[in-house]
Design goal:
Structural class: mainly alpha
Largest sheet: 2 strands, antiparallel
Strand content: under 5%
Distance between the termini: 34 Å
Strand order of the largest sheet: 1-2
Shape: elongated
Radius of gyration: 18 Å
Helix content: 40-55%
Number of helices: 3
Order of helices and strands: HHEEH
């Protein structure tokens, strides 16, 4: 489980990204790099980190499912992920 402070920081970034998305798009379209510099650093979408919805783990994240590889494997083996089953050939 990730530290609570890391999860809270990531949530804060997500809120800032949403808040400044429109203004950031306008400034980018106008080519105003000085205006972009004035926005908070954490309002940049590239600073957001994808994390597992259950554990908060950042490494081994599977975008299609929103889970880390470890939790995905556990849930898939239990049959709790729709449309996924163990393959064998």
């Amino acid at each position: 489980m990730a530290k609570i402070s890391q999860l809270a920081r990531n949530d804060k970034r997500a809120k800032l990204i949403e808040k400044y998305a429109k203004k950031r798009a306008e400034l980018k379209a106008a080519g105003d790099s000085a205006g972009l510099q004035m926005l908070p650093k954490n309002s940049s979408p590239s600073r957001y980190k994808n994390r597992c919805a259950i554990t908060g783990r950042s490494n081994g994240y599977l975008r299609d499912f929103g889970l880390s590889r470890i939790k995905f494997r556990e849930l898939a083996n239990e049959g709790k992920v729709p449309g996924v089953r163990k393959s064998s050939w």
